[in-house]
Design brief:
It is a multi-pass membrane protein. By secondary structure, this protein is mainly alpha-helical. The chain contains 27 helices and 4 strands. 48% of the residues are buried.
Length: 655
């Protein structure tokens, strides 16, 4: 391949192009080249600005919450602020017992939920047949978007009595919170882990099998290590949801601001205490609540930094291997393209897969992984059967719990469903009648948030995946995005109240709530979009470049349409989080029953309506009906996204 043909495989960077060196026989070509360069650079700058939105959001959250917390910190001092006694009526603002409660609840949820989620993801991706995997995956996607208040409702009605019978207490405490939060984070971690596992090329598995590895050895020593970064990201998202959960925890922990004596003792967390006190607090009391928000933010940012520090060696190794692979592919682009095409059409034979793995320099690494920790005393067949049984059990347990929640909501909610309930207006003290205004409020604020979030998130992901070079700026953008995804919803509510409601003067409105929700959804769509773009095979880009397309033309007309099915998954997760949010909209939208027309109108979303009904216990049938309707809305979003994904996939395949 000559040097003149090389740009067809990998186009030169804009900085390396000089329009003055364009062929002299065409003055128009000079002009087109210069205008194209200006357009491409302007687009790259726009993408960079979108990527920096996450950085700006993180800085603003920290600055505004710290500013609101300064009165109590300057009045009582940091040491007293971290004292053991929380008694605002007596001037005591110590948060240590609440901090301990948050740590206990989050750690317990991760211990229970992470193994189940990863085991379920492995089972559905690597073991289960296609039909079963599709059915269960749909259920998992549905449960990933179920509002947290429904999980709290389930914990209050079902789990709390069971824990009470087992422990002899009232059932309020850390143990019930562990179970509720573990169930909550399982769908999110499972969905993202499945995406990470599916991104591993089939050739890697076939190469492992060709060396005599069992399915368990291939999963444990080849597939899981290769998907490590994606799994870590999934766990970080799950951890962020657990540590920042407010409403579900508020409904089951007992809300006692003391260090618990046992797992069955009532407990309180930073998030639940903020939700309890924010409505009536003022002065130093309210400042102390913002101080809790600062602590929660710092914890989230610190955990994200720790995870990135641990993952850095792996990321560096992946980058090195990617550069080496690209260099080899440039030397023999045709053969690499043929291999990737063969892999895309069908799973290659074991022998061919082994040859591909050897060409990519991975055969020796797979062999070392398979030989590490080998024990001749243990039967490979027995180990394989036992471990596959463990994964099947994890999948069965997770599926059973998810089915139980669906049945719980459906069986109890169906009697309440009617046209009057769906399209009617609340009556009396808003506990009777229909819930139509709450449905409109939920859909209104979610749509507005998506309109704000999606363009920014997609363009930011395009910059990170297609334009950015590794460096401090890119690393900081990724860190800010991960931090933003882990910011507790209660902290985002405090920030939205301080900035959008008070500072910007939007008041309790759809706009204030939508802006706060958009910031929460931004990192989810960013991460899944970036992973989707990176998963698009390189030969597709090369074909477009070979036809003379510019970088933006390749991205907009080739890469993004090809990546849309996976982008849709992230959008569904983001919609689910927006629809299911309670704490954020409680502080930014309000609770008044109102049919919103303009973005500056207030309203009550379905999540807050469900929480008030369940918490007051006035009309449990209406609470069940509201919960069922919420789940049906999420299912509709999910099915619509899957329809778009299939349509896009058929179009990309020319069918």
């Amino acid at each position: 391949m000559s040097k003149k043909e090389e740009p067809l495989l990998k186009p030169p960077r804009l900085d390396d192009i000089d329009p003055n060196t364009a062929p002299a026989h065409s003055s128009n070509l000079k002009l087109v080249s210069r205008s194209t360069m200006i357009k491409e650079r302007a687009l790259e700058g726009l993408f960079l600005v979108c990527a920096c939105v996450a950085v700006l959001a993180v800085l603003l959250i920290f600055v505004f919450t710290l500013w609101k917390a300064m009165p109590v910190l300057s009045d009582i001092g940091i040491l007293s602020f971290f004292g053991l006694t929380w008694a605002p009526s007596e001037g005591e603002y110590g948060i240590m017992a609440l901090l301990a409660g948050s740590v206990i609840v989050t750690a317990g949820a991760l211990v229970i939920g992470v193994p189940l989620a990863i085991g379920c993801a492995v089972y559905l991706t690597e073991i289960a047949n296609k039909r079963l995997s599709g059915i269960v995956s749909t259920a998992v996607d549905l449960l990933a978007g179920v509002p947290s208040v429904i999980y709290g409702f389930f914990g209050l009605v079902i789990l709390r009595p069971l824990v009470a019978d087992a422990t002899g207490g009232l059932g309020f405490g850390a143990l019930t919170a562990w179970l509720v939060l573990a169930i909550m984070i399982v769908p999110t971690i499972t969905t993202l882990t499945m995406d990470a596992l599916r991104s591993i090329p089939m050739g890697v598995r076939e190469a492992s099998y060709s060396m005599g590895a069992t399915k368990w050895q291939t999963i444990y020593k080849v597939v899981l290590p290769a998907a490590k970064l994606g799994i870590v990201n999934a766990v970080v998202l799950g951890m962020g949801r657990a540590i920042g959960e407010t409403m579900a925890v508020l409904m089951v922990v007992g809300n006692a601001p003391v260090v618990p004596e046992s797992v069955s003792s009532p407990i309180s967390t930073l998030t639940s205490q903020i939700a309890l006190d924010m409505g009536y607090s003022s002065g130093l009391h309210r400042s102390a609540l913002f101080g809790m928000g600062v602590v929660l933010f710092v914890i989230s940012a610190g955990l994200v930094g720790l995870v990135r520090l641990v993952s850095r060696p792996r990321e560096a190794k992946v980058d090195t291997e990617k550069l080496a692979e690209e260099r080899r592919e440039r030397e023999d682009g045709t053969r690499a393209t043929q291999w990737e095409l063969a892999e895309d059409v069908a799973a290659p034979p074991a022998g061919l897969a082994a040859d591909v793995a050897a060409q990519e320099g991975s055969r020796a690494r797979i062999k070392r992984l398979l030989s590490s920790g080998a024990s001749p005393k243990v039967s490979k067949s027995a180990t394989n059967s036992a471990m596959l049984g463990v994964f099947r059990t994890a999948g069965a347990v997770t599926t059973a719990v998810l089915v139980l929640i669906i049945l719980f909501v459906a069986v109890n909610g169906l009697p309440a469903m009617s046209l009057d309930f769906v399209f009617g207006w609340p009556e009396g003290v808003n506990a009777e009648g229909g819930i139509f205004p709450t449905i409109v409020s939920s859909l209104y604020v979610t749509a507005l948030a998506m309109l704000v979030c999606t363009p920014i998130a997609v363009l930011a992901a395009v910059y990170l995946a297609e334009y950015a070079k590794q460096g401090r700026l890119v690393n900081f953008i990724r860190y800010a995005s991960d931090t933003l995804s882990s910011v507790p919803s209660i902290v985002m509510g405090l920030f939205g109240f301080a900035l959008f409601v008070e500072a910007f003067g939007f008041g309790l409105s759809m706009l204030s709530a939508a802006l706060a929700l958009a910031l929460m959804m931004l990192p989810i769509v960013m991460r899944t979009t970036e992973e989707a773009i990176r998963a698009v095979p390189r030969y597709i880009r090369w074909g477009a470049y070979g036809l003379g397309a510019t970088k933006w033309q390749v991205v907009s007309r080739v890469v993004l349409p090809s990546a849309f099915p996976r982008i849709a998954t992230g959008i569904v997760l983001a919609i689910g989080r927006a629809v299911g949010e309670t704490a954020v909209v409680m502080y930014t939208m309000g609770q008044a029953i109102n049919l919103p027309v303009t973005p500056l109108d207030s309203g009550r979303p379905m999540t807050i309506h469900l929480y008030l009904l369940a918490n007051d216990g006035i009309n449990m049938q209406a609470a069940y009906g509201t919960a069922l309707l919420l789940m049906l809305l999420i299912l509709a979003f999910n099915l619509f996204a899957r329809h778009l994904s299939r349509k896009s996939a058929k179009k990309a395949g020319g069918k």
